[in-house]
Amino acid sequence: MYKRLAALLAGIAFTATSFSQTAPAWFTNATRNIDEQLSKAAEVYTPGQNPRSVTCGTVRLANYRDWTTGFFPGSLWYGYELTGNKALATAARRFTLALDSIRYLTNTHDLGFMLYCSYGNAYRITKDHTYLPVLQDGARHLAARFSPKTGVIRSWDFGKWRYPVIIDNMMNLEYLYWAAGQFKQPGYTKIASTHAITTMKNHFRKDYSSYHVVDYDPTTGKVLSKGTHQGVTNESAWARGQAWGLYGYAMCYAQTKNPAFLTQAKHIASFIMNHSNMPKDKVPVWDFDVHNAYDVDEDGRAPRDASAAAVIASSLLDLSTEVKDGKMYFDYAEDILKSLSSDKYLAAPGDNHFFILKHSVGAFLFNSEIDTPINYADYYYLEALKKYAAIKKIKR
After folding, report:
1. Which of 44, 95, 114, 295 is the most exposed place for a label (fewest CB within 10 A)?
2. CA-to-CA dists, residue 125 to 10, 45, 121, 131, angstroms
3. Of 168, 215, 287, 318, which residue is the catalytic one?
């Protein structure tokens, strides 16, 4: 996301009180709320114990081993860019450096989420080389999880699977693309692109919806099974999984200009944007195939997933800059951001335990993080707002 946005974001910093007339009112209001929420959160929470979500009124904290731990520092960095509040940059540095021990982890594919969103944003913004050794170690450990036999990076080291790969893993490829250039490791580019090609072949159905988990034989590379760990059924379209796929292929195209990746991203976007079960406000329920037999909200639908909506918006804004018919992607993303910036989803300052968005779903089938604020929803919402501002050329 950093290389792709460099040209758009260079020199862009916004203050909550100095937008030009080109800034929509909803955008200005959202940015004010973001400044207040992140400022309070940075005071309340402790580096190394980052806010992840809320369950029954209690904040769930994430230590350095949690896959979500990089999102709060990343949100602080994005918040600084959106608001110009230097105190957020100071807090972002504290919360980022507290995650130093992630550099030693070898048992997770989530190093992109954990390090690229925190240390990666820190280095992009500050160019402080203090952040590079951790990023270098993390990229090396992520690349080491790739197998030439399977053509993919292993996701999990637990469960019944032999070599499981989840669609979420597409999000961590950008870390390798960036690290390939930063650390002069061209092999990382080959690993990332091979993973994307193999995933494109095995993870997607004819309608371009995605399975959540594909299990491979580690010896032969043969696909053993396709199913889900978080969707309602093995054949359903888990909403955040569709968002991960869209984001991943839009990003892979931006990094490589491989037209196959662009075609894939456009097909996934079409599946999402034209789905009959997409609500009018374009914030999807947690699985596109869920129905009223499941816990319904006040609208008579299953719980919404603001995190999926935020990732979709960020992805479509990227896609809008890569194609001739980009306006339809931009307009759809803008509609999502307007919805997320409404009172229904955007928390009032001081509320929501200082998270920014309400109404996300973590893992419904495990009764975990249902209809709650979640840190990655905030992160990708902020990222989408930054992209929106850059495209619209909103200035101070």
Report:
1. 44
2. 10, 23, 6, 11
3. 168
